[in-house]
Write a structure and sequence with these properties.
Blueprint lengths: L1 H31 L6 H5 L2 H10 L2 H4 L32 H4 L7 H9 L1 H4 L13 H12 L3
Helix pairs in contact: 3-8, 6-8
Length: about 150
């Protein structure tokens, strides 16, 4: 009888775990397929990031259209996954060229918040975005530019 009660408890526990396990399976499958590779991008609101990009003076220096010419800074179209200091046609600072950074969610978020700390000696004159949530949103927006 004790064994029967144990089996019922186990069965009940498993039934309660199924929704969680289904979600876990989706996360694992998405991650292995590359969809979840940068979860920090998902944390931001890309639409708000686009508005912030325009209103935080980012757009005064950076173009975001494919093949667009930037007035001051490098074009940010396709920046995610790009090696820092590598966009042809832009004259980067020696510090940026030597940084060894490949732009991803974490590195972009840190950079847009404190550019002079992440790459001392870079050419960007912005003091950075102060709020974590705003930085997440701008990075989410940059991730859409591909």
């Amino acid at each position: 009888m004790k064994q029967m009660i144990k089996m019922e408890n186990i069965a009940m526990s498993i039934r309660h775990m199924i929704p969680t396990l289904k979600n876990f399976a989706v996360i694992v499958i998405a991650s292995s397929a590359g969809f979840g590779a940068s979860t920090a991008f998902a944390a931001g609101d890309a639409a708000n990031g686009a508005n912030l990009f325009k209103s935080n003076i980012c757009s005064a220096c950076h173009a975001v259209a494919k093949g667009g010419v930037s007035p001051v800074g490098p074009n940010l179209f396709g920046v995610v996954g790009r090696k820092a200091g590598s966009l042809a046609g832009y004259s980067y600072s020696p510090a940026m060229k030597a940084s060894g950074i490949t732009w991803g969610a974490d590195s972009l978020e840190k950079y847009v918040m404190t550019p002079s700390t992440v790459v001392p000696g870079n050419k960007m004159i912005s003091a950075g975005i102060k709020k974590d949530s705003d930085a997440d949103d701008v990075v989410a927006y940059l991730a859409t530019l591909k």
